[in-house]
Amino acid sequence: MPYLAPVVVAALAVSALGCGGEAQTAPPPVPQGPALPVSPAATDGKPAPAQVLRQEAGHNLAIMAAACWFGGVWGDAEGDSPETRAKASEARCHDVVRRVYGHDDTGRYEQMRAFEVDAIADIAGKVETLAKEDPDDAPRSQALAQLVQAVAAAQREGMYARRAALRVRRDLDREPDKLTTDEAAAVAPLKDIRMLQALLAYNQLDLAHDAHALGMLAALDRMEMTIGLPRHMKIYAVGGLNQVLFGAAPPALPDDASKPLPRGGWLTYLTEVANAAGHPVPAGAKTPKQREPLAWTGALAV
Fold first, then answer.
1. Residues 286, 161: Cα–Cα separation, whole Å
2. What pLDDT score does 39 carry?
3. Of 43 and 275, the one with more pLDDT
4. Which one in 43, 109, 130, 135 has a CA-CA gap of 20 to 30 Å to 237?
5. What is the rounded CA–CA span in Å between residue 210 and residue 128?
6. What is the CB neighbour count within 10 angstroms for residue 90?
7. Cβ-Cβ contacts under 8 Å for 172 (sequence gap 6 or more)
8. What residues contact 257, with CB distance under 8 A and at least 6 apart?
9. The model's pTM
């Protein structure tokens, strides 16, 4: 699978993430911190101004939580190098912990990364509280909290799919005797995209652009996890997703999850997906070696 295409598309998706989806016109966030002391004379005897808060702090925290949960996919979009990607992702997550709890905490960090229910509820609650204190965020405070829950649910779902894919790849490399069992167990989590569909369809108030961009990043993450899987397992992983995004129905698969596809079945399907996405494989590409990367690129050029 070509690596450049998902990175480029992810960057485009992140560029759409602004306040209410208007990244190009939204003003830059105001840094948090205590207001500077102001003397009574400077205010003509009026009370000193209140502490300056980050502009749209609730919305900003919601997006930063998503950035934490997307990990390397978000790092790709932001241009993190392979060498710095893991540390940058950790830094984003620790930043969220500090914003939510007022201090860094390893236990809270691990709970957040594991999508534990209480940690997600804490983040959503903090987002809603911050949003209520901001005139721009206040009308959508509950919707922002719901968006946090929707992103977390989609990424938790993706985590289970990723674990299943990792088990199958491990068996291919080191424990082929376990492959049949783990392939069968992987089908359900690989196929499950209910929470991702809900995120893509989220349209509360003016947050539909944010939700759709985040949903597309989650979809790219799902596509990335197919690398190294047997071809028929790839279809379990992206078949439902491609049907939702492009209307491209997956082919019929054997009842036995350990059975391979008919020869050429994967490439035929992938070519149909690229065509449905509006980026067909050029007629000049004749061999499977030429056609497969072009079909992947077409499918990813969403």
1. 33
2. 34
3. 275
4. 109
5. 16
6. 14
7. 179, 228, 230
8. 180, 183, 184, 186, 187, 232, 233, 236
9. 0.80
